[in-house]
Design brief:
470 residues; alpha/beta; Udp-n-acetylmuramoylalanyl-d-glutamate--2,6- Diaminopimelate Ligase, Chain: A, domain 1; UDP-N-acetylmuramoyl-L-alanine:D-glutamate ligase; 3 domains; 9-stranded mixed sheet; binds ligand UAG; binds adenosine-5'-triphosphate; ATP binding
Length: 470
């Protein structure tokens, strides 16, 4: 029997779960589900429809809990057979969960990854349209990975996923917290609601699960108070179970000393920006707890092939730098731009290309603008996922946050904007293309359309210029 939560997709013989959602109530569609062939209706509150013959109606205290139970059982509770890593927080989820899956696979056994970069495991792809998939596809995919040989899975746990109980039947062994800064306020309304959603992850851990928490983030400290698993910490600014000190930045990466249980481990990495140091501490601490050799893990940090769309540097031997990054929150803008201005040696001018998403939390636009004029030398504003807002209006709102006289321009077409930024770069300058990373679409006023990705577009722009200058 198939499980279904959308009456429009019900097929003959399905079990339909009525979910009271954020916009609509699935109970209102039970009748349509029956018309489409549903034979079992699982509901949690009374409905205006009459019972129909041949259909079984079951009332439960929570349809989401029942759905979790059913989807996990139907798939043989895959997470109980896998070592499960989950990463939550505003930024860093993909970077950390992706790295965990790669390093775990090398040293211990196949580890699948599920998240924004797309579900994958050693050459296989799994179709997951959301960062944290809905309950039914999540359980199905974990089981598929298990059948494909996975011993572990590393997944991103979004705040939407937590509040909508998408991971309600996932038996986590390791839970990582990165940070909590402004995002998704269109949905959560305020930071406290947003934190409460994230905290669900740590309130529901089994006692043997390990929580690896960034305690330099004030919300990390709050997690310690409510965590039901074994609380462990990582930090740079204070003592922690896994701590970094003596950080040295170079044009090509960073080095630091990792301190754990009084022992010091020298680390070098090609990853850039201080936030990646936090990400590496989280990966090292978690994999150490998972039984990998810490020295093996650290050795892997020395050269990390770029994580798609994250600090992806375009190198054709040109005398200026071009980096594409998926920064899309004020915190990541602030940390990235601060790093390039103050910590990255040898940079002359900073030129940025970016926009901001439409129909989401619009409050961050002025903040983006403020950071540009605080840290950079020139900004080109362009279309991003503007949805039903005009791209120019979004750009004007970013510009409103800039200091008076800060030089910037608006070029609507994203590829042209990237080309213009590359064309104006002089020796020693850096062009930062921010916001979309490797994503292959732009969500505009006419809906989603194909976009080659900032990474591909920036590569073409550099090649075009080199071609012209031959
Ligand atoms: C805003 C949001 O999070 N929506 C999620 C939510 O849907 P909802 O509660 O809004 O659903 P609803 O429209 O109110 O409908 C309620 C119920 O009625 C049913 N229905 C509705 C109409 C109908 O004709 N028949 C019918 O049966 C629906 O199928 C649903 O079961 O619950 C659904 C089932 O779990 C999710 O698929 C859906 O994710 C949508 C697709 C989505 O785009 N979510 C995004 C915002 C999201 O989750 N993003 C996170 C964030 C990532 C990050 O940090 O960047 C992610 O994990 O991807
Ligand atoms: N620990 C961190 N703190 C702040 N910013 C970070 C951190 N790690 C990465 N970033 C920034 O956030 C961007 C997105 O990183 P990443 O994809 O790992 O985060 P995420 O939490 O998975 O976000 P999403 O689910 O939206 O992809 C990066 O391109 C970088 O600019």
């Amino acid at each position: 029997m198939n499980l279904c939560i959308d009456s429009r997709k019900v097929q003959e013989g399905d079990m339909f779960f009525c979910i009271d959602g954020s916009a609509l109530d699935g109970h209102d569609f039970a009748e349509q589900a029956v018309d489409n062939g549903a034979k079992v209706i699982i509901y949690e509150h009374d409905m205006p429809m009459k019972d129909q013959e041949g259909v079984i109606y079951i009332k439960v205290p929570s349809t989401l809990d029942a759905l979790n139970e059913a989807a996990a059982s139907l798939n043989g509770w895959p997470s109980k057979h896998l070592t499960m890593f989950g990463v939550t927080g505003t930024n860093g989820k993909s970077s950390i969960s992706y790295l965990i899956s790669k390093i775990y696979t090398k040293y211990k056994g196949e580890c699948g990854y599920l998240g924004t970069i797309g579900g994958q495991m050693e050459g296989k792809k799994y179709d997951v349209p959301l960062t944290t998939p809905d309950i039914i596809p999540l359980q199905r995919t974990l089981e598929e990975m298990r059948r494909d040989g996975a011993e572990a899975a590393s997944i991103e746990v979004s705040s939407h996923g937590l509040i909508q109980k998408r991971v309600g039947a996932v038996d986590f062994d390791y839970a990582i917290f990165t940070n909590l800064t402004r995002e998704h306020l269109d949905y959560f309304k305020n930071m406290e609601n947003y934190f409460q959603a994230k905290s669900l992850f740590f309130r529901n851990l089994k006692p043997t699960a390990v929580a690896m928490v960034n305690i330099d983030d004030p919300y990390g400290k709050r997690i310690e108070e409510l965590c039901t698993g074994k609380f462990m910490s990582y930090a740079i600014e204070q003592p922690a179970d896994y701590m970094a000190k003596d950080i040295v930045y170079s044009p090509e990466g960073m080095s630091f000393t990792l301190v754990h249980e009084g022992k010091e481990y020298p680390v070098t990495t090609n990853l850039q920006v201080t936030y990646n140091l936090y990400n590496l501490l989280a990966v090292a601490g978690t994999l150490d707890q998972a039984g990998l050799n810490l020295e093996d893990v650290i050795r892997e940090f020395e050269y990390i092939p770029s994580i798609p769309g994250r600090m992806d540097e375009i190198r054709f031997g040109q005398d200026y730098r071009v980096i594409v990054d998926y920064a899309h929150t004020d915190d990541s803008y602030n940390k990235l731009l601060h790093y390039v201005r103050h910590d990255l040696p040898g940079i002359k001018r900073i030129i940025t290309v970016s926009g901001a998403p439409g129909k989401r939390d619009a409050g961050n636009r002025e903040i983006f603008g403020h950071y540009f004029s605080q840290y950079c030398d020139y900004s080109i504003l362009t279309e991003e996922d503007c949805r039903d807002e005009a791209p120019k209006k979004v750009a004007d709102e970013i510009a409103a946050g800039m200091k008076d006289g800060y030089p910037h321009e608006y070029i609507e077409n994203r590829a042209e904007a990237i080309q213009a930024a590359v064309d104006m770069a002089q020796p020693g300058d850096i062009v930062l293309v921010l916001g979309k990373g490797a994503e292959k679409y732009l969500d505009g006023t006419t809906g989603k359309r194909y976009w080659e990705g900032d990474d591909v577009s920036a590569r073409k722009a550099v090649q075009n210029r080199l071609e012209r200058e031959k």
